[in-house]
Amino acid sequence: MTRFALSFIAASLLTGTAFAADLQVYEPVDMSDPVAAGNFYASIFGGVSMINDFDFVSTAGGGIDGTMEFENGYSIDAALGYDFGNGLSIEGQVGYLNAGLIGGTFDVIPYDAEGSASMTYAMVNAWYGFDLGGVTPFIGGGVGLASATLDSEFSAPFETASFTDTSYALAAQVGAGISLAVTEDISLTGRYRYLATGDFTMTDGDNDDITGSASASILDIGLKVAF
C-alpha cells in the first residue's frame, strides 16, 4: 500500500512539472513607462541680421524703381514648442530684427540716408533633427506674418527729407543648424535662417507709395530648454 501511494505521488509530481513547463509565463507590464518621449520646450536666440537690398517701385513720377541698402544689424527671437521625440518638433516663434539704413538709388540716382529698418514677425515652424548622440543637425522652416517699419531721413533727390511708416505682409523662412546637448534638458544651438516676405507698401510724406518685398539672412545662437 505504501509503495503504491509513493508511486502515485511521484507520477503526479512529474506530470505537474511537465504541464507547468508547457505554460507560457508573461512578465507584468510596467504601466509607469511613458508611451512617447515627447516634451515641451522653450528657446531664445540672438544674432546677426543681414538685410538684403530692398528693391521697390515708387508711385512718384508715374512709377520709379529704387533700392535701399542696409548695414548688418541684430536679431532676437523666442519660441515655445513641442518635441515629439521622433525628430520632429513644432513651435510658435516671435522675432525682431533691426538694421541701419545707409542709402541706395532712386531712378538710378544714388542717395545717402540715415535711419533704420526693423521687422517684427510671428511664425509657425516645423523642424526635423537627426540625433547623432548628443549632437543633432536639423533643418526646417515656417510661415507667418511680418510687420516692417521704416524710420528714415533721405537726401536729394527726395522732396520729403524723412518719413516713418509701417506695413504688413506674409512671411516665410527656411533654415538649418546644429544642436549640442549640454544637459538632459538644455541644448546649445547655432543656426542659419533665410527670411523672406511678400510685398510691403509704405507711404511717404508726399503721399507717394513705395512697394517691394524684403528678405534677410540671419545667423544666431541660443538655448533650448525642455520641460
Give keywords.
mainly beta; ten-stranded antiparallel β-sheet; Porin; single chain; elongated; 9% helix; 1 helix; 227 residues
Task: Describe the overall structure.
The chain is 9% helix and 67% strand. The longest helix is centred in the N-terminal third of the chain and has 21 residues, at 2-22. Strands 1, 2, 3, 4, 5, 6, 7, 8, 9 and 10 form a ten-stranded antiparallel beta sheet that branches. It has one domain (39-226): Porin, CATH 2.40.160. The N and C termini lie far apart (74 Å). It has one helix and ten strands, in the order H-E-E-E-E-E-E-E-E-E-E. The chain is mainly β and 227 residues long. It is elongated and about 60 Å long. A hairpin with a 7-residue loop joins strand 7 (135-154) and strand 8 (162-181).
> Can you give the mean pLDDT?
86
Name the overall outline. elongated
Number of helices: 1
- Measured between the Cα atoms of the first and last residue, the distance is 74 Å
CATH topology: Porin
Total strands: the figure is 10
In a nutshell, what does this entry contain?
With 227 residues, this protein is mainly beta. It has a single domain, classed as Porin (Beta Barrel), CATH 2.40.160. It is built from one helix and ten strands; from the N terminus they run H-E-E-E-E-E-E-E-E-E-E.
SSE map:
Layout: H1 2-22, E1 39-51, E2 54-58, E3 64-70, E4 73-83, E5 88-106, E6 109-129, E7 135-154, E8 162-181, E9 186-203, E10 209-226
Antiparallel strand pairs: 1-4, 1-10, 2-3, 2-10, 3-5, 4-5, 5-6, 6-7, 7-8, 8-9, 9-10
